[in-house]
Design brief:
Spx/MgsR family RNA polymerase-binding regulatory protein; 4 strands; 7 helices; Glutaredoxin
Length: 115
Amino acid sequence: MVVYGIPNCNTVKKSLDWLKAHQIDFEFHDFKKKGITPEKLNKWCDTFGWEIVLNRKGLTWKKLTKEEQATIDNQEKAITYLVENTSAIKRPIIEKEEVAILISFDESLYSQTLA
């Protein structure tokens, strides 16, 4: 299992703490340091929807002008933006056997899906 995120994100920290508390083995992929491919983002967008993968509540998105935000109006444009601005990816994203199964942190979903 691979957890994708950035280590200083509070939601990622909650997720990692939950996994450790439940003794679930995982590999951590810091997409700030390791980056992320358009192919991986496309898979996630196909699973969750690009509107979900693009974190519109974070500072990276909010730093854009309304005009800049308005230009990101489909999956292709979102992926182009996210490859360059990995902090705007909703996180964490958990993959099991290379299939994305969870996005963000919801303890009840983690319990149902992972425990």
